[in-house]
Design a protein that fits this description.
The protein is of the alpha/beta class. The chain contains 10 helices and 21 strands. Strands 10-14-13-15-16-21-20-19-17-18 form a 10-stranded mixed beta sheet, with helices on both faces. Strands 1-2-8-6-4-3-9 form a 7-stranded mixed beta barrel. Helix 8 (about 250-260) packs across helix 9. The longest helix has 12 residues, at about 250-260. It starts with a strand and ends with a helix.
């Protein structure tokens, strides 16, 4: 393994080992508390522009396979991953190759032999921050100059990078662990899904709920979709997850506002949830270190607690209650996790009910959307 040097916005300078691509990358560093599913996390388009620090100390032990990518391009959009111990000799009957191969193919830096517990505590106390990692530059001063001269994640529109270029139809359902294959459920109604960086398992869950899904680029003219709805071709619209600061997405804001004016049944997750809030006049705000992991407790409207997967740095404001009812609340910090809009057939959640590999306690929302569409 080659050496890699890390310089953080707060002045911290670290020398570590590299197991991914070579080069220099700048991005925002966050931490993820999931115990499993590192391939799904790394290939989630919502992590575009970020370095992922894993709190799970052993990463790479089950390798990578072609079925567990969370995007249809089989890509990693994150800037890099930071782990305590990396295992380049994986052992799993589904493994096809090591994680390092995935990172190198996608020009993603892999960093190991780092005290990730220290980094996690630092991010928890000081908040998510920008950093630069390089296998080429070892000077702290030079790295500081690179970081200072680079654009911040909040100023970059990553949607253009991760969205599909052409519309396509998705008909594959959830993965059947007993047969080791994806299902092909029967569908009875069609919906349009705006791809802001959509995860594959979201599409799988929508299909499993009985919906054929037409996935469209993030800049698709809202009138095209409205015309489909008025002609009876589709029964609803889904707004997907995605990366970056939602406040920079002026085009998507206008599209969402136009869709809302047509009174189409709508459902949204994560970034889509935030876009609905912004389109209604309630701007999002940035959390201190975000919610990233597979063990976040959320209380629903029935008073039951769901263990959820999460991945977001931004949140909708509390005064959204002027136009919506809160349906889900995060029990870690009491932030809003789900809402249902008043006088509209529109609802959304901040967490990820499609969580792959899990937990699956929130998957019922896809059936709720399907029932509204049908």
């Amino acid at each position: 393994m080659k050496k890699v040097w890390l310089y953080f916005e707060n002045g911290l300078f670290i020398e570590a080992k590299s197991f991914g691509a070579e080069g220099t990358a700048v991005g925002e560093v966050v931490f993820n508390t999931s115990l499993t599913g590192y391939q799904e996390i790394i290939t989630d388009p919502s992590y575009a522009g970020q370095f992922i620090t894993f709190t799970m100390p052993e990463i790479g032990n089950v390798g990578v396979n072609s079925e567990d990518y969370e995007n249809l391009n089989n890509k990693a959009y994150c800037k890099g991953v930071i782990v305590r111990n990396y295992q380049d000799r994986p052992s799993n009957f589904r493994c096809e190759h090591a994680l390092s191969k995935l990172l190198k193919e996608n020009n993603t830096i892999g960093i190991c032999e780092v005290d990730t517990r220290y980094l996690t505590k630092m991010l928890r106390d000081q908040g998510a921050m920008e950093m630069v990692a390089s296998t080429e530059i070892s000077s702290k001063e030079e790295l500081a100059k690179v970081l200072e001269s680079s654009p911040k994640i909040g100023d970059i529109n990553y949607i253009k990078e991760v969205t599909t270029k052409e519309p396509y139809i998705h008909t594959i359902g959830k993965y059947d662990a007993s047969k080791f294959e994806y299902t092909k459920p029967l569908t009875s109604k069609k919906v349009v899904a705006y791809d802001f960086g959509i995860k594959r398992n979201i599409l799988n869950e929508l299909v499993t709920a009985g919906l054929e899904v037409e996935v469209v680029p993030a800049d698709t003219d809202a009138q095209i979709v409205i015309d489909k709805f008025e002609a009876g071709e589709i029964g609803g619209v889904f707004l997907s997850n995605g990366p970056g600061d939602p406040l920079v997405l002026e085009e998507q804001k206008e599209i969402t506002q136009k869709l809302l004016s047509a009174n189409i049944p709508m459902f949204a997750i994560c970034l889509g949830h935030q876009m609905l809030s912004i389109a209604n006049g309630y701007d999002t705000y940035k959390l201190k270190f975000g919610h990233h992991g597979g063990n976040h407790p959320v209380k629903n409207a029935e008073g039951k607690v769901e263990i959820t997967a999460q991945n977001h740095n931004y949140n909708v404001p509390d005064n959204i209650t002027e136009v919506a009812e809160v349906t889900h609340t995060n029990l870690f910090d009491n932030t809003i996790e789900g809402i249902k809009y008043k006088n509209r057939d529109v609802f959304s959640v901040q967490h990820h009910p499609e969580a792959s590999p899990g937990p699956h306690e929130s998957a019922y929302v896809f059936k709720e959307f399907a029932s509204r569409v049908k």
